[in-house]
Amino acid sequence: MIRIADIDLNDWKKLANSGTSGTLGGRNVFTIILLLLLASCQTISRKTVAEDGNQKKLNFTEAITTRGNSWVVDKVEDNQELISESGISKWEDSNTVIRTYFKVGRTGSLNVGLNLKVTSGTTKLKVTLNGESKVVEVSNVDYEPVEVGVFDITDTGYHFLELQGLEKTGSSFAEVNEVLIGGPAASGELTYVKEDFYWGRRGPSVHLTYTAPEHTDIVWFYNEITVPENEDVVGSYYMANGFGEGYFGMQVNSETERRVLFSVWSPYETQDPKSIPEEYRIILLGKGEGVTTGEFGNEGSGGQSYKVFNWKAGNTYKFLLKGAPSVNNSTDYTAYFFDPDTEKWNLIASFRRPHTKTYLVRPHSFLENFRTEMGHLSRMGEYTNQWIYDTKGQWHELTKAKFTADATARKGSREDYAGGAVDNKFFMKNCGFFDEKTTMDTFHERTANGIAPEIDFSDLEKPRL
Predict the structure, then answer these.
(1) Residue 57 counted as domain residue
(2) Number of domains, the chain
(3) Which of 143, 167, 192 is the last residue of a domain?
């Protein structure tokens, strides 16, 4: 018995052109069946010749775009040039190693292929998965599915397919736009970035929203952050003191620069700060020494301030934020950062937000990666000793928090996110394609420290322009 799935595309064409069947309305029945099958089929397949000379065929059921799921791992600065809108391109260096990440929910054999082309000549590529390597030789100048072989997946979770160029006669190794997979290991739940590639490459952002006492007006919010050694990855924002209208924390902006950043959103919703009407603009009331101020956009818009500060992994840094109603239906927000080397609170900036009358609401922290080329590297921060100070002059320790994550996590594009409490510390971790995962919308509680911050508010620097 011949099964439909066993008939090659060329065999279908021969049948469609033969006279062995009747016609329907002048059209060969096999032609109609073929067109229907081609319209509904989602399996990618291609014949190759095995070493013993027999023909074989691997089936591929998923095409993982390299545009959204691949990174250069040895030279991260090459990611923006080599991983483009079309996928992997401009690949010239044989030392370049490129990994494509995906998560499987089943074990077993995995069929692997690549949809690729070469600009000219012949290329040899080494393809590695779970420590097993295969070599493929390609010379097609148009995109075609090329079989690599069958690999064994023994564990569920995240895996990466690694590509390295061995030989080429053309100017570059290949342009690869998809990694093709199929077989038993691909028949279960699969996780990879299918859309919104910018956000998918940045990776999931994670948040901790602290539970504050009810019916309490919060004037001051105090928090501490420690970034463990080797977790201070470029592109990371360890946000300490988040509130309903802004955020305050520290960043790794490059290999040579780090910042303490404080921003307040305008009540006028736009991505372009220049379009904000004058009456809705954030007003700068004052800033500290060495602080740069300006506007920001693209993730809401408003007033921004930052101080270049070489904070160090392993050290603990303190953050203090004030928020209280001010004149003419506005609210003033003022941020201070404690430098442990000088043992002094430093004013970052003070902003006035119009059309707003509130004390601090929704105290929270988050961890994000803001550099797409760093989305394959994990980072982690410890968030410790959270306190709020109310209008009655009382400190309250915050020991309970709700863990959440952003749309990238909620839509299932990435599952490399975690957070919670260990002893007297909260923590958050994201990116890097680790298998540990914390359920979103769960509550976590740390051990109380019981010692309120000792701060002389009258001694803090007053905002002035």
Answers:
(1) no
(2) 3
(3) 192
The per-residue DSSP string of 424-451 comes to: TEEEEEE-S--S--PPTTEEEEPPP---
pTM of the predicted model over 0.90: no
Residue 79 pLDDT level (bands cut at 50, 70, 90): confident
Here the tokens at position 437 are: 């995962």
Q: Specify whether 37 is located in the same domain as 85.
A: no
Buried b (16+ CB within 10 A) or exposed e, 30-39: bbeebeeeee
Domain stop point among 192, 212, 247: 192
Structural domain containing residue 180: 62-192
9-17 and 29-40 helices, crossing angle to 10°: 150
What pLDDT is recorded for position 299?
63
Find the CATH number of the domain harbouring 240. Answer: 2.60.120
Per-residue pLDDT of 105-133, as tens digits, reads 999 999 999 999 999 999 999 999 999 99
Q: In whole angstroms, what is the distance from residue 148 CA to residue 399 CA?
A: 52
> Which three-class secondary structure state does DSSP give residue 12?
helix
* Cα gap 22→206, rounded to integer Å: 63
- Statement: residue 20 has pLDDT above 70: no
Tell me the C-alpha distance between 203 and 431, whole Å: 5
The answer on 330 and 437 residing in a single domain is yes
pLDDT of 333:
98
